[in-house]
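Supplementary Note 3. Input sequence used for the single-chain structure prediction.
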Amino acid sequence: MSKNLQIGVYGSTGRVGRVLIENLQNDKEARIACLHAIDEFSFAPPKDTQKTNSLETLFSASDVVIDFTAPLGTQTLLQYALTNPKPLVIGTTGLNSEQLALLKQAAQKMPILYSTNMSLGVAVLNCLVALASEKLRNFDIEITEQHHRFKKDAPSGTALTLGEHAAKARGLELDKIRVSGRDGIIGQRSKDEIAVMALRGGDIVGRHTVGFYNDGEFIELNHTATSRDTFAKGAIHAAKWIVNQPKGQYTISDCLGL
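The predicted structure, written as discrete structure tokens, is reproduced below.
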């Protein structure tokens, strides 16, 4: 990767978008190529930074585009990219099956790194969860996640990804065994079910716990994000990596060689 990689920020007025801008201003290998806002800019961008509402302008100025928006925003980005291929880093959560299919289609024309969590620590946690799930087959698996009051999707994409790693390690499909709530006389817990529960409140950036519970012992694997910096730094790291990859769909784990 050459110095001064030109990174475009799509949906730059969001919470992570603002942190991305701060981190890119201090990066020695990359710089802000263009800031895109889906609606209006609610803040003053850094001096001499190009800003736009146009995807054409964003793509023309950028070597790679980072997206932390909402599902419909990501859908619009992918639809444009289909005819204007560009390396993409996407951290949007809550994508539905049609949007995930669109992402897969776009990855046939360009390299796309998509992860529900750009944290390097969570990437390692996914591996640990898969290992524990495989080796501790008789243990019950329960996942809880906590986020700030403003988060719109539940459970978090990260929690679902953790659940997918746990289920896959046992040869199961998460969609067929996932429990998202318990209430009333529900009977005893089934052997294979994996609960994924969501808590919302305050300004919690993100906390995920995957518990493996057995008679006489249990293990809990935790990850806590104390700042959105972790997502921004992970996305910038991913952007530097994805520009040198062939077309296809990747994750943050691929970027780290996990």
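Residues 143 and 196 are 5 Å apart (CA to CA). The longest strand covers residues 206-214.
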